[in-house]
Every structure is written in C-alpha cells, then in structure tokens.
Amino acid sequence: MSKASETVKEEIEALIPPTLFFFISLHIVLLVHNLMLEGTGISIGASVSVAIGSLILGKAVLLADLLPFVNRFPDRPLAWNIAWKTMLYFVVATLIHYLERLIDAWRQAGSFAKGNEKLLTEMVWSRFWAAQILIAVLIFGYCTIREVVRAIGEEKARRMFFGPMPKKHPAA
After folding, report:
1. For residues 103 and 111, is the Cβ–Cβ distance under 8 A?
2. Within a 10 A sphere around the Cβ of 50, how many other Cβ atoms?
C-alpha cells in the first residue's frame, strides 16, 4: 500500500466516528424539530442536508483537534477539556447553524445585508435556541466520550465496549 493511499485510509478511518456521531445527533435534532412543528418525520431533502452537515462537522472536529489550543488542558482533570471543547464546538455549530439559514435568506433577499436583516426579523428564535440546546447536549456527550477514550486508550475502550477484538493477520 502506498504512503498516499495509507494516509487517505487513516483520514477516512478518523473521519468515521465524529461523522457518524453527528449524523445520528443531527437526525435526532431534525426529528425533534419536525415533531414539534408538524409531527410528520424527516423528509429526504432534510436528511441529505443533515448528512452533508455531519461530514462538515466531522471534518471540522478533526481539523480543530489539530490546532494547538484545542487540547488546552491535557494534564488537568477530564472535565476541563470536556468543558473547553464543548464550548468551542458549540460556538462553531451555532455559527454553522446561523450561516446555513443566512445563505437561504441571502438567496431570497438578493443581498447579504438584506438577507441578514430578513433572517434577524423572521427567524423563530425559540426554535433556533431549542435546537442549539439539544446540539450542545449532544456535543457535550461527544466530547465526554472522546476525552474518556483519550484518557484510557482506544484499544482498552474497544475491549470495554465490544469485548476482545480478533487478532489482525499479517497480509500474505
């Protein structure tokens, strides 16, 4: 296996856990939102939008983890890094959530300024913040799991959750 394909494989493997977590989490947020508004469930278009958002958030988490200030408290109790990362990821998620709606308003209004004004006056803020609260709780859960796995080690966490893993056989 070439160095480039090995790097791509590692990147994809690293992208799967956060993307899967946010894929499920954002679908929960969407389902709760739809049940509160209409009680109808999830539309296909919304599901595709959630899938794309999950990939973006998954990659954003991986990129953010490369920044030196993200793992700011590695030698302190886990609660420090959990709180810090939850806050950082929540701020990013809130910006993405707002920008997603701003882009739609911008298209409808024809200009950025008019779109932002339209969004600020027409958005149902209680729904926006209800979704953000749910996202904050989900991000907190994600950060807690990630920090515990970091502290005890990935292999030990796998064994704790799934039992002993089969031995990998060397390629013949």
Report:
1. no
2. 21
User: Do residues 140 and 153 make contact, with C-beta atoms less than 8 angstroms apart?
Assistant: no
The region, left, alpha or beta by phi > 0 then psi within -120 to 50, assigned to residue 153 is left
Q: pTM score, two decimals? A: 0.71
The two tokens of residue 55 are 């990939």
As given in the structure block, the two tokens for residue 121 are 């006056």
The owner of tokens 């990630």 is 146
DSSP string, 69-105: TTT--TTS-HHHHHHHHHHHHHHHHHHHHHHHHHHHH
What distance in Å separates the CA atoms of residue 30 and residue 81, rounded to the nearest whole number? Answer: 28
- Provide the pLDDT confidence category of residue 83 given band limits of 50, 70 and 90: very high
